Amino acid sequence: MFRRIMTATAALAACAATAFAGDDDVSRRWAVIAGMNLSCPTTASVERSPRDAGNIAAFASPQCNVLLEYYLPQQHFSVVGGYNAETVQWFDSKVDATMQNIVLGARYYPLSKRFALQPYASLMTYTNVAQRHEQHSMSGWNGGDGYGRDCTLRLPRVSVAPTVGVDCYIFSSLALEFQYGFPLAIDGKAHVATTCNGSPDVYRMRSDMHRHNIQIGLKATFPFRFTSADGNNLFSLIEMALGIYDPADEKKQETKKERRRMKLERVLDSY
Fold it and tell me: Which one has a higher pLDDT value, 51 or 76?
């Protein structure tokens, strides 16, 4: 199964490369990107109770994002803006918060537009327009032990994120986008204090709200176009999905070196 998935992925990349081969005039003016993102906050300091077995920080449930991208007249540069929701959590989601961000940034694409794979580097800003201050108190049981927890959250108003990513063009105007960023929170704080079984000992966790962020999305570029090569690629993908066609079954084209070796072997065999 894994082999078939890898084979299909390789075939998809080959199809995209074929569609773009020799196409030096790839016209892109703007794009729409829709997808989801996941965030995992970092912790500045942790005093972990041995009775408290929850994950201190982990990737939260995915949230949506919608972005618009405008390609500047200068080749290789674009500006990006839009909206995303971002959830951060600690202690197996017992402490969490969601930010509503207005996104603005710029991207740099080092390669020519005719390549199917378009890596990029960018600098993004996230402005949280939701409430910033939250306070919660809770209690519960974990492995037969009781605990109490008080948390104070000050969500950052602004975060600045260096990011890297890649657009993988499936067709001429449609791409899968993968991005990793590390938003650096400005004036963000999280303080969580935990006590176990009424013990006077207090275990504290502190975070500056810096976080890892992964984004996966679908990108459509405009003016939108669908070429004959795209049609052939779509037909091949449908055949692969139905199990009619397997790229591994295709006969590999012989190289010049292989043809010369076979010719030499035939000459030797004739003696």
Answer: 76
Q: Using H for helix, E for strand and C for coil, what is the string for the chain?
A: CHHHHHHHHHHHHHHHHHHHCCCCCCCCCEEEEEEEEEEEECCCEECCCCCCCCCCEECCCCEEEEEEEEECCCCCEEEEEEEEEEEEEECCCCEEEEEEEEEEEEEECCCCCCCCEEEEEEEEEEEECCCCEEEEEEEEEECCEEEEEEEEEECCCEEEEEEEEEEEEEECCEEEEEEEECCEEECCEEEEEEEECCCCCCEEEEECCCEEEEEEEEEEEECCCCCHHHHHHHHHHHHHHHCCCCHHHCCCCCCHHHHHHHHHHHHHHHC
Amino acid at 156: P
The residue that leads in pLDDT, 19 or 109, is: 109
First to last CA, the chain: 47
pLDDT of residue 252: 59
Alpha-carbon distances, residue 38 vs 19, 79, 122, 153, 158 (angstroms)? 32, 22, 18, 19, 18
Nearest to 229 by CA among 89, 20, 39, 44: 20
**pTM of structure:** 0.77
Residue pLDDT, tens place only, 86-126: 999 998 778 899 999 999 999 999 999 889 999 999 999 99
Give the chain's mean pLDDT: 83
Q: How confident is the model at residue 5 (pLDDT cuts 50, 70, 90)?
A: very low
